[in-house]
Structure formats: structure tokens, C-alpha cells
TrEMBL record:
Biased composition (Acidic residues): 238-249
Annotated GO biological process: endosome organization; endosome to lysosome transport; protein transport
Organism listed in the record: Smutsornis africanus
Name of the protein described by the UniProt record: Pleckstrin homology domain-containing family F member 2
Annotated function: May play a role in early endosome fusion upstream of RAB5, hence regulating receptor trafficking and fluid-phase transport. Enhances cellular sensitivity to TNF-induced apoptosis.
Length: 249
């Protein structure tokens, strides 16, 4: 079915509409063989709170952006190659329901659908696209992924020293290796994580010690089900500002 749609006028028109919705700031999306599989609004768990984002699933990439005008305009375009994607289901808890993790070597995050059926459809389509891509390329699934950042609201004190309380002056920071919320003194070091940045990035002292001794797997937190312990955030409390986890801290 995908091959049949690849060169159809309807598919070309649909992709062109998506391009226009992102305006001049978005990257061109029309290339030979690319097919728009589906689209919809998902709630993305960002650093400070859950936020509504418009997602577009193609047969080779996943694209999302901030909603400026519903169904008409989006900004802050993000493009994720599906070959590098793995997904894991998240247990329901309170308002955070119908969710799964989207994990890649450069960035990982949680999203939530409006219903269980919608979640199942998204996950099935993503897995099918990834499987088809890997089958065609002969590559193996990615076994490396960036840590999912712990939301700010989950930590009132540093998750490493367990002492420093966060205030407007004592700011929260995130370790790029484990995703924990940590204080400044516990995350003064930098380490080169090539999959995430060409420059050394902020990591906590714990991860720095393990990385320095070559024990890289020990500091990668396993957070597939960690959001079952998240506070009962309101999924209706959304805004159209930038993704918080893209900030420098």
C-alpha cells in the first residue's frame, strides 16, 4: 500500500499541505518515495508540563511541532528518522494515560494519546514503518537511546545528593546521560556524548565517574515504566511555547 501511494498525486498534495503548515521556517518534506501515513495531536511530556503537539507520521520520519493555529499553522519543526526509533509502552497513572516512550540516540520523550485505541494505532503504525525500513536497509534496531528527562515537577530536591532543595535561585538541571534532575554542584562536569552533541554536555557526577571508567551502561537509567510514578499532572494544561527539554539546562 505504501509503495502504491508513494508517487500518487493525493500523497504529494498531503505532504505539500504539511510543508505549508510549517511555513518558511520548516524543512522541505517532499522527497521521492516518502508517504504520509497519518497525523494527529498527542500530548508530549515536556520538562515543565505536558503540552499538545501536532505529530505527522511518514514512512521514514516522524515530524512534530508546536500548534499555532489548529490544523493551519505549526512551528518549531522537529524531524526524527524512524530507523533510529524504538518505542515502549507506559503504564497508565491518573491523568497520564495511553502513553508510550519514543526513544532515539539523540532525544527520548513520552507522549500520550487521547484513547487506548489511538495509542494502539500509533504504536502499530510506528513499529510497522520502523520494521519495513530496517528490513529494506538490512540494519539492526538501535540499541542506544538518549535518556528520557525526568519532569521538573518530580523533583523538589536533587536526585543525586538528595540534599539540595530547588528554589528560584538554586535551579534545576538535567543530566544528559541519565535524565535525572540535579543541582548545579552535582552537575558541574561535561562529557562528550557524540550521539547527542558535537560538544561536551552537562552530566551528573555519578554518570561522569561511570563514563570515565568505561561503565557506560550503568548510568543509563531505565525509565520505561517510571512515569507510573509521575505526579497527577493535568493533560489540559498545555501551551504553545518551546519544548522545555531543549533548553540548555
Amino acid at each position: 500500500m505504501v509503495d502504491r501511494l508513494a508517487n500518487s498525486e493525493a500523497n504529494t498534495r498531503r505532504i505539500s499541505i504539511v510543508e505549508n503548515c510549517f511555513g518558511a521556517a520548516g524543512q522541505p518534506l517532499t522527497i521521492p518515495g516518502r508517504v504520509l501515513i497519518g497525523e494527529g495531536v498527542l500530548t508530549k511530556l515536556c520538562r515543565k508540563k505536558p503540552k499538545a503537539r501536532q505529530f505527522f507520521l511518514f514512512n521514514d520520519i516522524l515530524v512534530y511541532g508546536n500548534i499555532v493555529i489548529q490544523k493551519k499553522k505549526y512551528n518549531k519543526q522537529h524531524i526524527i528518522p524512524l530507523e533510529n526509533v524504538t518505542i515502549d509502552s507506559i503504564q497508565d497513572e491518573g491523568d497520564l494515560r495511553n502513553g508510550w516512550l519514543i526513544k532515539t540516540p539523540t532525544k527520548s520523550f513520552a507522549v500520550y494519546a487521547a484513547t487506548a485505541t489511538e495509542k494502539s494505532e500509533w504504536m502499530n503504525h510506528i513499529n510497522k514503518c520502523v520494521s519495513d525500513l530496517l528490513s529494506k536497509s538490512g540494519k539492526t534496531p538501535s540499541n542506544e537511546h538518549a535518556a528520557v528527562w525526568v519532569p521538573d515537577s518530580e523533583a523538589t530536591v536533587c536526585m543525586r545528593c538528595q540534599k539540595a532543595k530547588f528554589t528560584p535561585v538554586n535551579r534545576r538541571h538535567h543530566c544528559r546521560k541519565c535524565g535525572f534532575v540535579v543541582c548545579g554542584p552535582c552537575s558541574e562536569k561535561r562529557f562528550l556524548l557524540p550521539s547527542q552533541s558535537s560538544k561536551p554536555v552537562r552530566i551528573c557526577d555519578f554518570c561522569y565517574d561511570l563514563l570515565s571508567t568505561g561503565e557506560v551502561t550503568a548510568c543509563q537509567s531505565t525509565r520505561s515504566d517510571s512515569y507510573s510514578q509521575s505526579p497527577k499532572s493535568s493533560l489540559n494544561d498545555v501551551s504553545d511555547d518551546d519544548d522545555d527539554e531543549d533548553s540548555s539546562d
